[in-house]
Amino acid sequence: MSKVVEVSPTTRHEGHTKLVLKVNDDGIIERGDWLSITPVRGIEKLAIGKTMHQAPKISSRVCGICPIAHTLAGIEAMEGSIGCEIPDDAYLLRIILQCANRLHSHALHNILTLPDMYLPGTDTHINPFSKEEPVRSVALRIQRLREIGQTVGEIAGGEPIHPSNPRIGGMYKNISPRGKAKIYDLAKEAVGLAHDQMEFMITVLKDWENRGTASVAGSYEVEKDDKFGFHDQGYMAVDPLYASTNLDADPKWFPERWTEVRPWDWYMGEQEITLDDPNYPNHATTPAGGKAWPQVEACTAVPMYDGAPIEVGPRARLAMFRNYDKKGAMGLQIARQMEYPDCLYSMIEAVDALDTSGAVVADEIPQGDGSLGWAANEAPRGTDVHLAKVKDGRVQWYSLLVPTTWNFPVCSRALEGAPWQLAEVIVRAYDPCVSCATHMMVVDEKKKVVAQKLVQ
Amino acid sequence: MSDWYAENMIVGCGNPLQTDDGFGPAAIAELKKLSLPENVKAMDAGLAGPHYLFTLMAQSDIPVKKMVILDIMDFGGEPGEITRVTPDVLPPGSYTDPHSWGLKEPLQILSERTEIVILGCQPESIDISQIDNESDEAEFWVTESVRKAIPKAVQLALTEIGVDYGTTIST
Description:
The complex is a heterodimer of chains A (456) and B (171). Chain A has 456 residues and is of the alpha+beta class. Chain A has helices spanning 43-46, 54-59, 67-82, 88-113, 135-157, 177-209, 294-297, 314-322, 328-353, 403-414, 423-429; strands at residues 3-7, 17-23, 29-36, 166-167, 170-171, 213-214, 222-223, 234-235, 243-245, 258-261, 271-272, 291-292, 302-305, 310-311, 369-379, 382-391, 394-401. In chain A, the strands form seven sheets. Chain A has a four-stranded antiparallel β-sheet. In chain A, strands 1-2-3 form a three-stranded antiparallel β-sheet. In chain A, helix 5 runs antiparallel to helix 6 (177-209). In chain A, 57% of the residues are buried. Chain B has a single domain, classed as HybD-like (Rossmann fold, 3-Layer(aba) Sandwich), CATH 3.40.50.1450. Chain B has helices at residues 23-31, 49-58, 106-111, 144-160, and strands at residues 8-13, 40-46, 66-72, 82-85, 115-121. A five-stranded mixed β-sheet of chain B has the order 2-1-3-5-4, with helices on both faces. The chains are: A alpha+beta (456), B alpha/beta (171). Chain A binds chain B through residues 9-17, 40-43, 46, 49-51, 53-54, 57-58, 61-65, 67, 108, 111-112, 115, 129, 139-140, 143, 146-147, 150-151, 154, 159-162, 182, 217, 281-282, 435, 455, and chain B through 2-4, 15-17, 25, 43-48, 51-53, 55-56, 59-60, 97-104, 128-131, 134, 136, 138-139.
């Protein structure tokens, strides 16, 4: 007979989520629901009536991890609506910024992942903040890659965290020849580090995959199977590196293929929790006897593409553009590592091509007629789609379909067949970035918010 | 030293989408209007201070000498009132997201090598902002009481790192 276990909160990712898992007598997940319990972001409402210049700045604040992706996607959705083409050198600066964002984010994710993994050839879990070798050198390498990403982001984007340089019509200013030389030097330094880091991580991830048992961050070991984290859903990516918008000659994303369903129609109904485990890390299992109700607790809508959930992120990019075919949670993790060198080669190509004397703002910036514009940015975790309608310089409508929102239902399916104690390892493979993924607000017929408990 | 640190850092933390939580970034925006010495850097860390900044600074080759954090803090004062604390008085978790890291408090680790001062401003509201300001330039939507505290916060932060900007800033 099935039992229900709830893991709340899940750890080592951004934002707040929980897992509600139906498991069989052997503790294997029969159905898993992974849901956001982060309060709503409300950006779609806040942006209406604002100028097209303000809205991307607002949307960059919905999340503390992905401000670059949201800034670029927001700006390009506005540009898509008003029909504004940007100069080539502005585009190159945005490419550099995108690479810096991905480099930093993938390195940060390594820190969050490593405590689940083992030093190859040992049964010792990796503490990425250990002062002992060989982990110390790995940690310093990760931090240096993050520093390089942030420094390049600051040079190209004007700020290392919330970029101030991108604007509708291009960029506020070009970088100096000295800035160009510095980006080039940093990227060259990082190439070697990135190769080493990629090889280290893939070795560690394959070591984990080849083990018969595993645990979450040093707790008790459980047996796992050879299809850990598999699902049968499809992939969505618009570009190996950057983005697609409705202004492209050959757009790679199609708004008419996107639909959303309510969490009520997707997640499990009310469940009584019948299994807990005080030995689980962080005492994160809810005591038996409690209640879980994913249908009403989930704070996201469920986006579909061609009527089905779809995976976005590093594996989707590699599967669609590089014929990558490794499935499972470790297949996704390995794909992420494989993107390290591309970040830097693309950065070097872009900075080589950049003319620091070139114009970076469009000659003309139309004010818009209310047409739909969209931009699908390949953020570190996957396709970050912003859609906008701008008229007379003001935002009439704005929507964000962010990577983890796409991945919630896919990852939920990937939980099936895994021991429940390792469900978090699968979730972490998706590198959840949840705050910006939360965008459901329940209103009544008078447009008044009625689900106040979600707006904490 | 890494390029995006300086000997003295003034860091604004918070989310402008939640009304007075935007105090830190708003104060940094004011600081950026000033001409600061080369060994001072003002940074808008937004929501991301713990993972974008504190963990990196904690492991950098050459430590940051002093960091002043500007943020809201509920210490029971009047809205707009500013208090000065050091990390040792903060409860664990004040500057980390336990859901994100599950590891040690990054600010506590950092305080072992960097002098850290937090200038906390009592908020009036941290509800999701209604953002009713129609100005094209507006990026911060703090309440009036907190807005009035910003010049003083700027002056206090500069004083902490030994920069005398005179009395041109209205308090």
